[in-house]
Amino acid sequence: MSAVSIRLAAEPDLAAVAALFDAYRQFYEQPADATLALQFIGERMRRQESVILVAQVEKSIVGFCQLYPSFCSVIAQPIYTLYDLFVAPDARKTGAGRALMQAAHAHAQQNGFARLDLSTARSNHKAQALYESLGWVRDEVFLYYNKAVPGTILPA
């Protein structure tokens, strides 16, 4: 397989990124929904609500990561949440995931973000090994909670 290159996603990449996003959601046990994936990724791109980096081999997009800007009140600095990272199964072990993580770090640094945060499934040991090999540190101090808000529908 050829070398992996990383770049910011652009509008012509929408269909390829949406297909990977749909596969990512299925990895986390969500039903396949290509229409939802296309709509969701398209809205993030059009509204510039996230940064999407893509991994490309030759002319094929084989992976992506998505960063959401946020803030940390404790350090009073902007941060990114690296919420999505996915590499197509046939492109794994090419270095695409590592390259995406490194590019996300570089992008954050170049744009004045103080930190990157992420969460992953406790059972996703391969991802955890990648993160730790890149210097990420598992939080042993804070517990994270969430609560669904039933009936909430975002405007299209």
Write the layout of secondary structure elements.
Elements: E1 4-8, H1 14-27, H2 34-46, E2 51-57, E3 60-72, E4 77-87, H3 96-110, E5 115-117, H4 125-133
Parallel strand pairs: 4-5
Antiparallel strand pairs: 1-2, 2-3, 3-4
Helix pairs in contact: 1-2
Short description:
With 156 residues, this protein is α+β, with helices and mostly antiparallel strands.
Description:
The mean pLDDT is 94. The protein starts with a strand and ends in a 23-residue tail after the last helix. It is built from 4 helices and 5 strands, in the order βααβββαβα. 26% of the residues are buried. A hairpin with a 2-residue loop joins strand 2 and strand 3 (60-72). It has helices spanning 14-27, 34-46, 96-110, 125-133; strands at residues 4-8, 51-57, 60-72, 77-87, 115-117. Helix 1 packs across helix 2 (34-46). It has a 5-stranded mixed β-sheet with strand order 1-2-3-4-5. By secondary structure, the chain is of the alpha+beta class.
Features:
single chain; 156 residues; alpha+beta; Aminopeptidase; 5-stranded mixed beta sheet; 4 helices; 25% strand
**What is the terminal separation in angstroms?**
39 Å
Number of domains: 1
Largest sheet: 5 strands, mixed
Arithmetic mean of pLDDT: 94
Strand content bin: 25-35%
